Amino acid sequence: MSLLNTLNDDMKTAMKAKDKETLTVIRMLKASLQNEKIKIGRELNDEEELTILAREMKQRRDSLTEFEKAGRDDLVEKAKSEITIVEKYLPEQLTLDEIKNIVSQAIQQTGATSPKEFGKVMGVVMPQVKGKADGNQVNAVVKELLNN
């Protein structure tokens, strides 16, 4: 079943349950997917859908960080619940050890020896963890392992 079909089914369920928050998030996700579909002029494949979901998750995590800095507890809770809803549609997230393993393999593969080769390593790692790990977490692991 495609992501769009899943979102439609979940949207109906949220409507019946009168769950306005879930409904709002699902509508945003659906709109993002449909906008991208219109933009490229064809049906989205699984990887493209995953990219859009990852982008939506990143936006919400960035918002959460900003709300926390500003001390907006009301918006922090809203952002956290939106993140929880979006997570349902993403693949299972990688653990820190799994990320370190992937990064170590990428460092060996690229032959990177210094932090100057950060971009080269990230270029190999990111396609492997797309949608399965937070980019900031991957970034931190790459920096840590290149500095050792």
Summarize this, please?
InterPro entries: Asn/Gln_tRNA_amidoTrase-B-like, GatB_Yqey_C_2, YqeY/Aim41, YqeY/Aim41_N. Helices cover 78% and strands 0% of the residues. It is mainly α.
Q: What is the secondary structure topology, with strand pairs?
A:
Blueprint: H1 3-16, H2 20-40, H3 46-70, H4 73-87, H5 96-110, H6 118-129, H7 135-147
Helix pairs in contact: 1-2, 2-3, 2-4, 3-4, 5-6, 5-7, 6-7
Written overview of the protein:
The chain is an all-alpha fold and 148 residues long. It has two domains: 85 residues, Uncharacterised protein YqeY/AIM41, N-terminal domain (Hypothetical Protein Yqey, Chain: A, domain1); 52 residues, Arc Repressor Mutant, subunit A (Orthogonal Bundle). The protein is 78% helix and 0% strand. The chain has seven helices and no strands. Helix 2 crosses helix 3, helix 3 runs antiparallel to helix 4 and helix 5 crosses helix 6. The longest helix is centred in the middle third of the chain and has 25 residues. It is globular and about 55 Å long. The protein starts with a helix and ends with a helix. The relative contact order is 0.10. Pfam families: YqeY (PF09424). InterPro entries: Asn/Gln_tRNA_amidoTrase-B-like, GatB_Yqey_C_2, YqeY/Aim41, YqeY/Aim41_N. This is GatB/YqeY domain-containing protein.
